[in-house]
Amino acid sequence: MSKPIYVLSGPNLNLLGVREPEIYGKATLEDVRRLCEARAKALGRTIEFRQSNHEGELIDWIQEARTKASALVINPAGYGHTSVAILDALKAANIPVVECHLSNPAAREEFRRHTYVSLAANGLVSGFGAASYELAVEAAAGLSA
Ligand code: DQA
Q1: Which fold has domain 5-143?
Q2: Measured distance CA(30)–CA(8) in Å, rounded
Q3: Cα 67 from chain centroid?
Q4: For ligand 1, atom 1: residue with the closest CA
Q5: What residues form DSSP beta bridges with 124?
Q6: First and final CA of the chain: distance in angstroms?
Q7: pLDDT tens digits, residue range 66-121?
Q8: For 144, phi and psi rounded to 5 degrees?
Q9: Domain spans of the chain?
Q10: CA of residue 123 to ligand 1 center, whole Å
């Protein structure tokens, strides 16, 4: 049995479904969790799905993933645009990393066009709403055993 794929979500994503639904969609984080679990199950894999509003907690989980996960999907939310510390943790993780965004940050404000996480990610899925997470789980499964 392979190790789980960690699926981590950053700040404000606990408000999915009510937060700017015209940008992020109507699915709640619980809906996203179910979609990820179903996609992982179909691929014979499991996930560990977590969300935090705190940078340090996300870093602790990335460090945990280093030994406990087969791969990591991360939607860093706003921290993607600001956090060198999350980038450093991802670089140390030594497992495949897939960056994921519900919206397409490249088509939004200028400050969203750069993410530090991209420097450590094998690839990026963005712009497909909740389906971005499903696609990211599939990509992470393909990159790991
Ligand atoms: C986001 C995009 C980020 O720019 C934003 O700060 C978020 C969500 C997304 O999933 O589209 O909080 O990561």
Answers
A1: Rossmann fold (3.40.50)
A2: 13
A3: 18
A4: 77
A5: 99
A6: 9
A7: 999 999 999 999 999 999 999 999 999 999 999 999 999 999 999 999 999 999 99
A8: -140, 165
A9: 5-143
A10: 16
Given the CA of residue 104, which atom of ligand 1 is nearest to it? 11
What's the CA angle centered on 6, arms 138 and 95, to 5 degrees?
85
Atom 3, ligand 1: residue with shortest CA distance: 77
Q: Which residues form the catalytic set?
A: 24, 101
- In what helix (H) or strand (E) does residue 58 lie, and over which residues does it extend? helix 55-68
Mutate to test the pocket of ligand 1, among 14, 52, 55, 101 (most ligand atoms within 8 A of CB): 101
Q: Which amino acid is at 78?
A: G
pTM of the entire structure? 0.97
Report pLDDT digits (tens) over 107-145: 999 999 999 999 999 999 999 999 999 999 999 999 998
Please choose, from the candidates 107, 105, 135, 113, the residue with its C-alpha nearest in 3D space to the C-alpha of residue 123: 135
Residue labelled with tokens 């015209």: 22
Q: How far is the CA of 99 from the centre of ligand 1 (A)?
A: 11
73: number of CA atoms within 13 Å, CB side? 33
What is the whole-number distance in angstroms between the Cα of residue 59 and the centre of ligand 1? 18
Residue 90 confidence (pLDDT):
98
